Amino acid sequence: VAGVDALLGGVPVRAGERLLVRSGWSARWGSPEYFREFPPVPEWLAAAAAGVPAFLLGVETPSLHPDAGEYERLHRLLLGAGVVIVENLRGLEALPGRVSTRTGGRPEART
After folding, report:
1. In three state form, how does the secondary structure of the chain look?
2. Under 8 Å between Cβ of 25 and 39
3. How many beta carbons lie within 10 A of that of residue 57, not counting itself?
4. pLDDT for 16-65, tens place per residue?
């Protein structure tokens, strides 16, 4: 599973953006470690998403963080900023690397 830092490659989070973190974790669905040993969303990403704020943060993992205290803190940070959280996603590997959407427009891939 690639780290989130490597996946985003330092590209800044923009206001209103919908962030889908593709980690490959959904391939582990049904395994014992799926709910226990998943990679956390890094603090910097949650802070960046809350800071602008992003519209949505979606992850393939069952939650944002396997530690209960961090789970709660990250949820409060994001939800307090109005960021929608979506968990347990799958099929993200079919999406382009980064997609930008505009209201009424067609999504455009960007690098």
Report:
1. CCCHHHHHCCCCCCCCCEEEECCCHHHHCCCHHHHCCCCCCCHHHHHHHHHCCCCEEEECCCCCCCCHHHHHHHHHHHHHCCCEEECCCCCHHHCCCCEECCCCCCCEECC
2. yes
3. 26
4. 989 988 889 999 999 988 998 899 998 889 999 999 999 999 999 999 99
